[in-house]
Structures are given as structure tokens and as C-alpha cells.
Amino acid sequence: METHRTSTRRITGIQPTGHLQLGNLLAAVRPMVAGQHDVHTLAFIADQHALTVDHDPARLAGLTREAAAILLAAGLDPVRCVLFVQSQVPEHAVAHYLLESTATFGESRRMIQFREKAGGQESVRLSLLTYPVLMAADILLYAGVGQDVEVPVGEDQGQHLELVRALGRRFNRRYGLTFALPRGVQPGSGARIMDLAEPGRKMEKTNPATAGVVFVLDPPDVVRRKILRAVTDGDRVVAYDPVTRPGVSNLLDILGCVLGRSATGLAGEYQTYARLKADVADAVVAVLEPLQRRFADISGDPAELARVLAAGSERATALAGPMLAVAQQRMGLLPVAHADAR
Ligand code: AQP
Q1: C-alpha–C-alpha distance, residues 28 and 10, integer Å
Q2: 277 in catalytic set
Q3: In 3-state terms, what secondary structure has residue 193?
Q4: What pairing do the DSSP bridges indicate for beta strands 183-185 and 82-85?
Q5: Which of 10, 11, 12, 15 to mutate to test the pocket of ligand 1 (most atoms within 8 A of CB)?
Q6: How far is ligand 1, taken at its centre, from the CA of residue 167, in Å?
Q7: What is the tens place of the pLDDT at every residue in 92-137?
Q8: If you measure from the C-alpha of residue 249 to the centroid of ligand 1, how many angstroms do you get, rounded to a whole number?
Q9: How many domains does the chain have?
């Protein structure tokens, strides 16, 4: 049995909607790896969340394996942590239905991300509306009474976490105390990595304009080129101010995240944008190159990767199964029966 400094559980999901990018790595994956000795870490590839928009099935399967291999290559220890693929633990989908029967249409429709992604389109998948409820299932299945559960959330996920807490609270009130309410925590340094070509928007794996997105598996020369061409501004003084100087501040944030230093402190050390960009490129390549070598080894052995994920889903099922059974029984559903049971 692995021991950790605290009994806290930390739950993080990564959606395989595209190739993982630098923002995912610096703000989600690296802090997860750094914290794995302190807290019980549950990390899953949220492949069902990627079904909420039109997708190519073969690509989704490939991106799911790729994301898992990147987590391992970044240093996630699958013995110390529970690493699994969401759809391989069917308890998530079953608990999703139970919680859908707790949630209301009105509160799901009010989610900002739904309004943004649905954006007035006629044909929107129902799962896009209900995916924050699946997120509630992803978390509450591991949040038994008395359990301390934390969820790293970026600022755009805050509203979803509030919904998770509201549904847990409502379930407890209606059916009896069943779930602990999770806490939201700031992931890593809290820095939001912005697009290098459009520093007014977040770096995103699904952005079709890839010039400003550094993908974790981009070759080093591509990484350098994207960083050296990052949009800054006409002001020649290196200073940290994300509001008025988003481009240069983003470069300082990236460097700060990689080196574990404050972006403001780093600003004082640079006289020119060229020097800053060169150092950011070197620092990012120094993180990505060894990760990419480990990734090549891991993805070169798909049978072993499948075995690691199968072991992870067994461990997740051992935690989620009893929790689901309690929730079902509290709602008045009969326990799963076996014909040969006497
Ligand atoms: N640019 C970013 N800066 C800081 N953190 C980021 N995250 C994502 N982009 C940035 C964090 O990465 C974690 C996993 O994200 P996700 O896969 O669940 O989905 P996301 O937040 O929607 O990530 P993307 O890359 O922006 O994907 P798409 O394009 O699908 O929307 C989360 O902790 C997230 O905050």
C-alpha cells in the first residue's frame, strides 16, 4: 500500500479533445506529478467528455492513449496514483444518470461553457448540456462521507465545481448523507498560459490555428519557432502586466512555471524581448525533450500501456463501485442481483 503525507484525495481529469498543449502540461500535469507523493492522486482521461461535440472515433481512441502516455512520460507513477480511462470505469456513466435525476435543466443551461460552446447552434448534443453533471459523477464517486477531496480547477471551471457541490449537497439532503463536498484548489502556480499568436485568448488544444499553441509532442525546432514568433508589443521594456502587456507577460509566466520562479521577479532580469524569447524556448525544450523520449518508449509498447490502464481502472472501480452501490440503494434502486445467489 502506498503511503502519502495526507489522506486527501486529489482528482484531475484531462479531456482527449486534441493533442495536449503546454498549458495542460504546466498548469495541470506537472502540478499533479509534483503532488503525487503528498496526496492520493486520481488522474483520468475523460474520454466521455470528448463525446460532447462531433469527433472522429479512431482519433479519439488515439488521443486517449496519447494523453495517458504523456501523463506517464511526465512522471506520473501508476502505482502511487490511480491512473485510468473514464469509460473503462462504467460506474461514472451510471452515477451520471443518478445525478442527472438530481440536477435541473435550468441549472445546466446556465453553465457559461455550455452557452459559449452551444453558441446558438440548432443541433447541440444533449451531452454538452449535461457534461458538468458527468463531472459531478467523476468527483462524487470518490468522495465518501469524511473523505477530504480536492479538485484543481482553472478559473473557467469554477462554475462547474459549484454545480458539483450543489448536486452533492442536494443528494445528501434528499436521500441521506452520502457524499463529502469537494474543495476547489488552484492548480500549480495558477498561471493561465495564453496563446502565443493571440495572447488575449487561452492556449487551447482544440484551437485550429496552431501557430500560437505549443503542443507537448511538437518537435523542438517547431517549439522554438512558435516561441520566437510569439506576439509581444511595440514597447521595448520587459515588464509583467498581463492586462496591458499580455504577450510579454505570457512569456514570463511560461518561464516562471518552468523554472518555479515568479514571473515578476524574472521580468527585471531581461533587457530585450529577443533574450527573453530565447530563454523561454530553451527552458520549454529542456522540459519537453526528455518527456518526448519517455513518451516514445511508453507508446512503443501499447500492450504494457493497456495493462497499466487496466490495472488503474480496476483500482478506480474498487473505490467507485461501493460508493455507487450506496447511492443507488439510497435512491431506492434494488441492488444488482445474481441468478445463482442464494
Ligand atoms: N492555457 C491553459 N493555461 C492553464 N491551464 C490550462 N488548462 C488547459 N489549458 C490551459 C488546464 O488543463 C487541465 C486539463 O484541461 P482539459 O483537458 O480538461 O480541458 P480544457 O481546460 O478545456 O483544456 P484545453 O486545452 O483548453 O482544451 P479544449 O481546447 O478542449 O477546450 C485543466 O485543469 C485546465 O484548466
Answers
A1: 12
A2: no
A3: coil
A4: unpaired
A5: 15
A6: 23
A7: 999 999 999 999 999 988 888 788 888 777 788 999 999 999 999 9
A8: 19
A9: 2
